[in-house]
Every structure is written in C-alpha cells, then in structure tokens.
Design brief:
It is a single chain. It is built from 13 helices and no strands. It has helices at residues 3-35, 39-61, 70-93, 96-103, 106-116, 124-146, 150-175, 180-202, 209-235, 238-244, 247-259, 266-282, 289-299. The protein starts with a helix and ends with a helix.
Length: 300
C-alpha cells in the first residue's frame, strides 16, 4: 500500500472514530440531563455492550481468554474504569467541550508517568510541550473554578491523569504481545463489575424505552469508535492519526453549540486550542539542525 493511500485510509477511519466519539459524548450528556442517569449507570451500560460484543466475537473466532499478564490487565482495567467514571462525571457536569478536552490531557500525563515510572529521558523540547499543555489546562479550568464547578473540573483532570497511567499499561501489554481485543475486553468486563458497584451505591434508575434508546446509542457509537480508532492506527500514519484524533474536541464543541446551546468563554477556547497543540506536538520528534542539513543534501 502506497503512503498516500495509507494516509487517506488512516485519516478516514480516524474521522469516523471522532464522529462516533462525539455522538457518544452528546448522548451521555443528554441521557444524564433527561433521565438523571449517574456516571456509574452510564459506564455500566457502555461497558456491558462492549463486553458482550467482544466476548461473543472472541468465542466465534475461538480465541482464548487466558493470559499470563492478568496482573497488568487488572491494573490497567481498574485504573481505566476509574478514569472513565470520572470523565463521564465531568462530561455530564461541565460544558461538553471542556469535559471532552480534559480526557485528552492523558497524553500530557503519559509523558510525565513515562519519565517518573519508566525513567525515560525527557528532552528540552518535550519539557516545553508539557509546560505548554499544563498552561492550556489552567486556562481551560479557570472559568469552571470561577463558576463553582471545581469538583467536576478536578474529576475530569484526575480522569485524564488516570487515563495516562492506563495508556502506560496498554503500552506494556502491547509490548508483551497481548492482542488489542483482549485488552479492551478485560477493560470492559472490569468496567461492568466496578460501575455496577458504584451505581448500586449511588442508585439505579428504571429503564424506559426512551432511555434504552440513548443507552444503546452510547454502546454502539462507543464500540464503532473504538474499532475505527484501532483500525486507523493500524493502517494509517501514526502522526496523522494522532493529530486527527483531536477532531473529537472540535466536533464536540460544535455539537454543544448547535444542539445543546452551550457557550464557551474565550479562556476555555484558548485552553482547548493549546491542549490540542501540545498533544499534536508531543507526537512529533523534533528534527535537529544536523538532520535538516542531511535531509536537504539528500534532496539535492
């Protein structure tokens, strides 16, 4: 497959994922507002759909559920579920674009954890990108703190940090040779168990025909988004795909403005733009002056 076709395919799948993630987030926001569903219930139904779908597909393919890396799976799944509970809470209590953007701070925290836990060297370039990202977080959260939404804002930020840790564990599982479906399956199964406990503590709501439609939409859109994103990274250029993943923030902001009537302060918009920029820059390896000269001479 030539590079141009690879870029188009990867970009296409990532845009599908961004649209589906946006649909999922809008439905989460609406389901919480219309039916008073809590984050525990929303995560439960979202994870239940993925658990059943992925489990059934694995059985049909006769794949094995056994793994020698169950401790890493448990660590990743518990932290990932905790992150999702916090981020769903943030999405339902903050402006949609703000809540969604906080989930993308995971790339910032991933770099920090890689330095602290894996002892990876952080270049001056990466340090500058991290400082830029944290500056964007401060700008983004300032209006939320001023309007008395500190709890939801801190929950979203904590969810982003936990997502960063979960991605660190995903990296370890991938290097150990674990297939992607098994990583997502164990996350989903653990999510069903943990969210059911949380929903029991906070209270369940009786399902209606209308709420079931929203919850089904959340499950279907989330699964399609996850599969599309996985496909995008498999067939596309990693930098292009990573950059386009931030279209979810853009689509969410537009959807919130047109369908939910939400308005954003200039600080929130600037903060989102800075976080998106830092996320994109963090995936770029800086080219040294020597490398630029070598590239120039090759072209000649």
């Amino acid at each position: 497959m030539d590079t141009a076709k690879k870029d188009v395919l990867g970009s296409g799948w990532m845009l599908v994922a961004a649209v589906c993630f946006t649909i999922m987030n809008v439905l989460i926001k609406e389901a919480s507002a219309k039916f008073a569903l809590g984050s525990g219930e929303l995560v439960f139904w979202r994870m239940l759909f993925s658990t059943v779908a992925l489990g059934a597909a694995a059985v049909l393919r006769r794949d094995t559920f056994r793994t020698p890396h169950w401790k890493n799976h448990l660590n990743r799944s518990m932290v990932g579920t905790g992150a999702m509970l916090l981020l769903f809470y943030a999405v339902t209590h903050l402006p949609l674009a703000t809540g969604v953007t906080l989930s993308y701070t995971s790339s910032i925290f991933l770099a920090v954890f890689s330095f602290l836990i894996l002892k990876e060297r952080i270049s001056v370039y990466t340090q500058a990108v991290l400082l830029l990202g944290f500056a964007g977080v401060v700008l983004l959260l300032n209006p939320s703190f001023r309007s008395g939404q500190e709890t939801a804002a801190l929950a979203g930020l904590a969810g982003g940090a936990m997502s960063g840790w979960a991605y660190l564990k995903v990296r370890e599982l991938s290097l150990a040779g674990e297939p992607g479906w098994r990583v997502v399956f164990y996350l989903s199964a653990t999510g069903v168990a943990m969210s059911s406990v949380w929903a029991t503590l906070t209270g369940w709501h009786m399902l209606s025909r209308q709420s079931a439609v929203y919850l089904s939409g959340i499950g279907v859109s989330a699964l399609i988004a996850q599969l599309s994103m996985t496909r995008a990274y498999k067939v596309g250029d990693k930098f292009t795909v990573a950059s386009l993943s931030y279209m979810t923030v853009v689509f969410s902001a537009l959807s919130a403005a047109f369908f939910l009537g939400e308005k954003l302060f200039w600080q929130e918009i600037l903060g989102m733009c800075i976080i998106i920029l830092s996320g994109i820059l963090s995936s770029i390896r800086p080219i040294t002056f020597k490398q630029r000269l070598q590239s120039l001479f090759r072209q000649r």
